[in-house]
Design brief:
By secondary structure, the chain is mainly α. The chain contains 5 helices and 5 strands.
């Protein structure tokens, strides 16, 4: 089974307050799903969708530090490639002792940028293919 990192769902100030109010009620079974903050319902729905497909999940705070191996797993690349990206300055990092650590938010930003570049390149290839009449 593959591991899926959920895309961020950031609660509003109101949803944070609602979550504080209902969290103890939820633990005691004294709350209805309709009483949960919208952001919590979205997260639960996404978790259930992934579970229904047999996927395992990790829910991580966006602000948390991750290892180079965790970054490599998320980006679907090798750990040495991630280290190379760090050494090239393409992804910010810091040391904890002698170990490199990355902010998850930087990995998410890097992946988003890579995905955008891939989409742009694909669109250019499709346009070129049409221009040359290769798409028939």
């Amino acid at each position: 089974m593959r591991s899926t990192l959920l895309q961020p769902l950031t609660p509003t100030d109101l949803e944070v307050e609602q979550a504080r109010l209902v969290s103890s009620q939820l633990l005691h079974g004294d709350i209805l799903l309709s009483e949960l903050p919208e952001v919590a319902l979205k997260m639960l729905t996404r978790v259930l969708e992934e579970f229904s497909q047999g996927h395992s999940l990790s829910v991580v705070q966006i602000e948390s530090d991750i290892t180079t191996q965790e970054a490599a797993d998320y980006l679907n690349v090798s750990r040495p490639y991630v280290v190379k990206l760090l050494e090239q300055g393409r992804i910010p990092f810091h040391f904890v002792g002698n170990q490199r650590r990355l902010k998850l938010e930087h990995i998410l930003d890097f992946k988003k940028h890579q995905d955008e570049e891939s989409q742009t390149a694909l669109a250019e290839l499709q346009a070129l293919s049409q221009e040359l009449g290769l798409d028939d």
